[in-house]
TrEMBL record:
<dbReference type="Pfam" id="PF01697">
    <property type="entry name" value="Glyco_transf_92"/>
</dbReference>
<keyword id="KW-0808">Transferase</keyword>
<keyword id="KW-1133">Transmembrane helix</keyword>
<dbReference type="GO" id="GO:0005737">
    <property type="term" value="C:cytoplasm"/>
</dbReference>
<dbReference type="InterPro" id="IPR008166">
    <property type="entry name" value="Glyco_transf_92"/>
</dbReference>
<dbReference type="GO" id="GO:0016020">
    <property type="term" value="C:membrane"/>
</dbReference>
<keyword id="KW-0472">Membrane</keyword>
<dbReference type="GO" id="GO:0016757">
    <property type="term" value="F:glycosyltransferase activity"/>
</dbReference>
<protein>
    <recommendedName>
        <fullName>Glycosyltransferase family 92 protein</fullName>
        <ecNumber>2.4.1.-</ecNumber>
    </recommendedName>
</protein>
<comment type="similarity">
    <text>Belongs to the glycosyltransferase 92 family.</text>
</comment>
<keyword id="KW-0812">Transmembrane</keyword>
<keyword id="KW-0328">Glycosyltransferase</keyword>
Amino acid sequence: MDERVNGFSLRIIGMFRRDSIQPLDCVFCCSEHNTHMSLAPATVSPHSDHFGFPYCTTDVMCQIPQNCNATHVTLVTRSDEVKGFNQIWLPIRNKKTNRKEENKPQFDFTVCVSSLFGDYNNVLQFAQTLEVYRLLGVNRVVIYKTSCGPDLERLLQSYSQEGFVELVPWPIDRYLNPSPGWLFSDHGGDVHYFGQLTTLNECIYRSMDRSRYVLLNDIDEIIMPYQHSDLKGLMDMLQQKHPNTGVFLIENHIFPEKHFEPSRKFNLPQWKGVPGVNILEHIYREDPDRNIYNPRKIILQPKMVEQTSVHEALKYFGESYKVPLDVCRIIHVRVALRGSLKLEQLNVDKRLWDFQEKLISKTDEALKRAGLL
């Protein structure tokens, strides 16, 4: 349920082929025993960002009829209505049980990680990243998984059993030819980056009533406060200064994995056999090229966002704010973006070292739980 847009009470998030969208109706099951069905016209709203791919994230909006206590919904074309309803029924989530009472969210911070696919097996960086987020006050990490490497699978299952990670199966490759890239003209395929835009939007709505803030970033990115010890301190300050803002844009900074901290003091013996990058060893930060577009990632209040893309919200209530880089930036340890820069042209940034003692201990514990240490 989503009653924030006038005239509608239900939103279905899907993927539609852009050149063949048909008029649709919502069919509601109005009791738990399937004894009564009700029909309502649907408004189909493709998202404006699709990076040129044939399929795009699409919202289908309907108004639940007044005399219907709806539990499930399905979509039909006009021709389906003549044939009869042989459909997949979707349970209606985020139902409002008490309109007068706004319950306190279960979580302060949720991280949404979209589109884990291929044989990605960067175990050490992933464990370190999750533990940094835990130290920063994140309560839940939602991961949409198509596939991954065997060691990372063990780690994910361990975190999932513990409850910190919520694994959402995302078998998109059974239904479409998902692209491993972001631009149709370069990478081909049916849909952008294994359906990343759809999973990010789904995660916002999944978190709508249970999380005060949602962080949208990749699996190898850490949204890091630089003037506060945790995310709560950061957001309390930002929200006080910008009370009508629901979208906070954070600048991405690359820490090239080819440059190592010279003393190698974090080249720890227990991690030698663990696949992946050790983020504590990479302290050299690129300055973004200010002459080109620099994509940001997002911290948002889910209740103030209607649609999002990867680097900006598309539809939202309230304002958007670009957070200064001295307040917060993304630590992104990966291959160099500006590979021509020499080491002396990079900035030394040891912010991660502020967490070193707890981070090493917590990472060891996580790897041991998963049987990887």
